[in-house]
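Sample intake sheet
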Amino acid sequence: MNKIYQLLSICQKGRNLISGEYAVKQSVIDNKTYLVIISNEASDNTKKLFKDKCSYRGIPYKIWGTSEDLGKCMGKEYRVVVGVTEKNLAIKILNLIEQT
């Protein structure tokens, strides 16, 4: 498993990861999220929604990974959008994504 997915699993175990469009959107609106990851398979509308919400609030976002792998690292099924709510882990994950 990729190191990014391992860090996302750690976030999930520490309850620092939110998944699902509605929950992540609410977290972004409330400025409780430090990084949003949108899967490559997300619809164009979903990508645009989160790009706009995150850009307006200055929250970094990345379109990366597959919805199957994002779900697997959380111990769930498919996840199209996840949000990291712990600042240091978000920075580390963002740096690793930018290196790939």
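Comment: The longest strand covers residues 35-38. The radius of gyration is 12 Å.
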